[in-house]
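Can't attach files on this board, so I'm pasting raw text. These are the components:
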Amino acid sequence: MFLINCPYCGERDQQEFKAGGEAHIERPKQPTELSDDEWAEYLFMRKNIKGVQFERWNHAHGCRKWFNMVRDTSTDDIKAIYKMGEKPPTQ
Amino acid sequence: MRNKYSVFSLIKNALSHHENWQRAWNDPAPKKEYDAVIVGGGGHGLATAYYLAKKHNMNNIAVVEKGWIGGGNTGRNTTIIRSNYLWDASAGLYDHALKIWESLSQELNYNVMFSQRGVMNLAHNLQDVRDLKRRTHANRLNGIDAVYLSTEEVKKFCPIINTSQDIRYPVLGGTLQRRAGTARHDAVAWGYARGADAMGVDIIQNCEVKGIKRNGDSVEGIETTKGFIKTKKIGVVAAGHSSVIANMAGLRLPLESKPLQALVSEPVKPIIDTVVMSNAVHAYVSQSDKGELVIGAGTDDYVSYTQKGSHQIVEGTLNAILELYPIFSRMRMLRQWGGIVDICPDASPILSKTSIKGLYFNCGWGTGGFKATPGSGDLFAHTIANDEPHKLNAAFNLNRFVSGDLVDEHGAAAVAH
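---
Top answer:
Structure tokens for the assembled complex are below.
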């Protein structure tokens, strides 16, 4: 349980939010040309990192907007939050 | 050679104030090389080592554990054992385990306190009723005992349940598997450790894996905090940390690791002599032999390795428990904890070879791995020893995420994931 600083609403309790999984997984540009292995990679395979991970979150019980988060999954410390479409922080 | 546990050994040791019991397993330093190394000293890992030694004559093997044996999810689960799964592949897998449970204490000469007190699953809406009836029929076609109970029969089997029809989610019926029940989770790890150790398996605790050495497409050994260990076969049974090990080998797995919580109350006199699970409102409860109510809560929806969960998850579960069991309203909760569960997209496990020769994964058990411990160890040992899956775990391969032949047990498995 932790607080999340929604880029649109400010700091709110985590239970207002819905986790959306790993961020920056790009939808295949030409789906018809994908092999089964590539589909599996896109649909199912995840980094599931213990440490700093990039993920998507949705303020489901608030503004309902999506945004990105950099979070350390071994401590639940939030390192950065940025809007959809913005470049992920490098540090 | 291990001394046999019996009533006579108990009396003999009582006379010497229990100060001369033989060590149950050794604490060896790792050898330079093993025929196989199991990564993870929980119930599943120790069972794998036990059956590798017992059924496949692989005695030059080791189990490496980063903490102490049974200190991860083996010691954190709610100890429920059942096999009433919907799909044929799952029914085969979980009932194989249940059959081994039935004689496990005798086989290990270690009392795992397996108690077939029955597991009841409740229905709270019409769709639940239809799903549970369907599952009862599917179970019986697969030779698994299952009966459907009316609301009155539920009340008769477990009188403390509030079956009043004016509560928010009234009980409309339920299923009962009488062969299901609970076991003492620590004893399972200790029993398998003692059995494996007696056959020459090295159990190496406080030994964390830091890297997997590969030579092209096959494995050569593991880097650990106690040095390099050479081996041609590595069986990874690391539960919530499976992806961490997979990343070391350059593999990706279809897993997400999330905190799952449980809690126990102060001990009280016997009040509930079965296990009751309720999927729709996510509440399940049983009573331990010490008298504590053992309550399982849900998972958080975000990836985390912190072994703690969110407060509202526990709150939601306790709300449901209180509505179903008003008699518990004055109970005080004693302890609460979290474990990290590795969840597959289809909520079924992976017991599989990988694209790397000599690297095997037993993972993805998600929220319900404890019940499968003996069967999982047996089938994974078969897979490692023969480099081929047993027919009972063939469906649980890693390739199902490519072929699309998933074993979708979400919801169908009688409990929400």
